[in-house]
Request: fold
Amino acid sequence: MARRTRDEEFSEYVVQRRTQLRRIAYLLCGDVHKAEDLVQTALMKLYLAWPRVQRAGNVDAYARRILVNSGIDESRRPWRREDPGLEGLDRTLAEGTAIEDHTALMDALASLPLGQRQVVVLRHFLGMSVEETATDLQCSTGTVKSQSSRALARLNDLLAPQFGAVGGTDR
Amino acid sequence: MIDEKSLQERLTALAAQQDDLLPRALDDDLAAGRRRLRRRNVLAGGGAIGAVAAVTVLGVGVAGWMSPSAGPTVEVPPVAGQSTAVNTEEPGSDAPGPGTTGDVPVPADQGPPVPAADATFNRNLTAAMYAHLDPGKVHLDFGSGGFTVDRQPGARSGGNRIGWRMPGQMGAEGYVALSVQPATRTPRPCGSTSEPRLTCHSVTLPNGRTAQLGRAGDAAVVLYRQPDGEWINVSVSTLFGNNTEIPVHDLGITDQQLLALVQDNRLNLPSPTDDEQAKENAMKGFKPSTQAVRQAVGRALKGGTVTYTSAESVPEQLSVLLKWTKGSLMETVEAGVDSSATVSPCKDQIGITCQQVTLPDGRKVMYGEGLGQFPGGRRYVRGVTFLQPDGDSSFARVLFPGKVAQPGGITKAQLITLATDTTLDK
Reply:
């Protein structure tokens, strides 16, 4: 593949997907700086692998898997010792969303084991199926289902005070 | 119970709150990718065959502790069908230390554990670093981990960035990056991986050997080749950007300390295991030449005109892209070989699910044909992978311009002939 083509295609992909990749990384690691680092690294790897990944037609999956699978393996402070918020940076909150809710949700995510947090991000943020999630995480569908169940139970325990008005019965 | 739809909405809102922070230009992402690719290609193509495995993956194997622009993760060479290394270890939430607000370092024995296989390497490097830089153990902070070895084929190296605290400088953290690279590798130029980048000059040591030294204020770097051939790189930075936004100052690490550290004979990579060595060996000399692939394509795809487009050669794979034309037909052909160490599944190579086909002579190939999802939309594809007797895998694929196969175009038999061409098996 000619370099020019690679650059053009890669650029188009980054424009379209960068924001989403950063969101995934942020939910996984809980820190905007760290998330940005992860995305930069993921995109660098993606650029390297572009011809092959593109040929396989799974660019999104490849980029996502880099983030999900390498997101926590880092030379840096462990997750819970990071300030999960955006200290020193302006917060832009969705209208009608209390900052306490964000903090509570971030803290709850932080309390989950990595595997459960990955499942939450893939299944309940990205809306991926159990099968797709299992593929990304290279585990069985049974593992995904059990991790998801435990994660939701944990989140329910932690977030009931904040999300008290939410009362789904779909589990 | 939490409603899952509500959870998704709240996760989205949470994630979106940081959308506008730390904006980065597209050109920066592109430039980073280009730099890394250029580095990898130069290294991959610049050496003798025997040095390929040792040198090539340096481009991607320059781990996070060395690269100023890289993220903190250990680099993994891209291999279709294989995701990057999965670290299922839960973050060390119970690790001790002052976090990002204090000034007290986490001692080596209280930081996150390193893999058992790296224990000796970690112990040796830690001891050397303490001895030469911080005998009082008041600066080095192992809260981000100790020294580990990157064992991916062709990318063996070891090291890490270790935090550097200064008493009284609350929340500030710099780091000392120490790495060991094999003798068979050509290291990146001195100062090119330090933060900031530094210009180095030669320093003759008392033992008569030469080191490269660069310094700018507190920041410094030394590159040195030990008598056994291994390369030692140590760099000092005032800011451990992964952990804090506050740089340290007046570190007090002298050139003499760094020069003494790099000469320490405890700084050695562990010997590769038999399995690791086998994988290293697998990346040596498995590739046919691009010319050989082109000739094989010419032999197999008769009836049309083959035009070479480009070739992509990385440590684990050679892929040649060509165009095949016949009258008004124009099809895209790719052919190449994967190293046995990184064979991709047929589905990843071809882009669609494959089935095993047994040839009249008893050999087996994986063959796929049908509509696949490719950039720009769904296209019809035919492809073959063939596991060569030595474990390498050759492949051939034709991508049609539309959603159906072109009558008179490249056939299944032709692709099988190409993928099983003996000249692709080195």
Q: What stands out?
A: Residues 1-74 of chain A form a domain with the Rna Polymerase Sigma Factor; Chain: A fold (CATH 1.10.1740). Chain A has two domains: 1-74, 96-164.
